[in-house]
Amino acid sequence: MIRRALGLLVIALVLSGCERGMHDMYDQPKYKSLAPSPLFANGNSARTPPPGSVATAVGETADSSSGQRGQMMAATSVAPALPLDEQGRSLAQGDVGGRAESNPLPLTMALLQRGQQRYDIYCAVCHGSAGHGDGMIVRRGFPAPPSYHSERLRNAPDSHFFQVITHGYGVMYPYADRVPVRDRWAIVAYIRALQLSRHAPVYQLDASDRAQLQNSAAGVHR
């Protein structure tokens, strides 16, 4: 008897949540989009934004959790030195239609440092700090991405990595709304540096690096 009473009480409590009489949040006084209004001279409820206000949900940024920024900020803070469109195509010299197969940005230490910073933020958690596909969430059971040091990816064009960052691939979702075009190319440059760090010919090393390598090899064979 007690169980039946408790069951009926639970059912009553659940059904009380379905009451449609308490819908003040739904039927609140408001204007829907483009609805007319007698309150304003032009008869429209939609108001023109005040001068100097910044539109939201426009643009992209690598420095916010939402990946969005105002249009005004985007116009003033992300203008690249080398013009690029959203797909990473170079706009220099009228090259609007052609897709950049190789990185169009000059390779500088600043670019590599920026690429490393962005890589550590967005990529290392899956791809690992050295690009072996052994990031922290992979160690926790997430599907492992391919190693950047595989022959297939070492032979892939720069545009492949750029497009994967932009549009996603497999279980990887796109990062176009979080990583600006220049930062995508910076990440690509850093990926190339990671690949070179594992496959650089000895003759390309400077004298100090060759000496360090020889000393390490000598220590192994002792």
Low confidence ranges:
60-81, 91-98
Head-to-tail CA distance between termini = 84 Å
CATH architecture of the domain at 71-199: Orthogonal Bundle
For this structure, what is the CATH homologous superfamily of the domain at 71-199? Cytochrome c-like domain
CATH class of the domain at 71-199: Mainly Alpha
Q: What string, H for helix and E for strand, traces the elements in order?
A: HHHHHHHHH
Count of individual beta strands = 0
Largest sheet features? none
Mean pLDDT: 78
Instruction: Determine the strand fraction and express it as a percent band.
Output: under 5%
**Helical stretch count?**
9
- Going by helix content, strand content and strand pairing, the class is mainly alpha
Q: Which percent bin holds the helix content?
A: 40-55%
Overall 3D form: flat
The CATH topology of the domain at 71-199 turns out to be Cytochrome Bc1 Complex, Chain D, domain 2
Radius of gyration: 28 Å
Q: Mind sketching the topology for me?
A:
Layout: H1 2-16, H2 71-77, H3 109-122, H4 124-127, H5 136-139, H6 151-154, H7 158-167, H8 181-199, H9 207-220
Structural overview:
The chain has 222 residues and is an all-alpha fold. It has a domain at 71-199: Cytochrome Bc1 Complex, Chain D, domain 2 (Orthogonal Bundle), CATH 1.10.760.10. Helices cover 41% and strands 0% of the residues. It contains nine helices and no strands. It has helices at residues 2-16, 71-77, 109-122, 124-127, 136-139, 151-154, 158-167, 181-199, 207-220. The radius of gyration is 28 Å and the shape is flat.
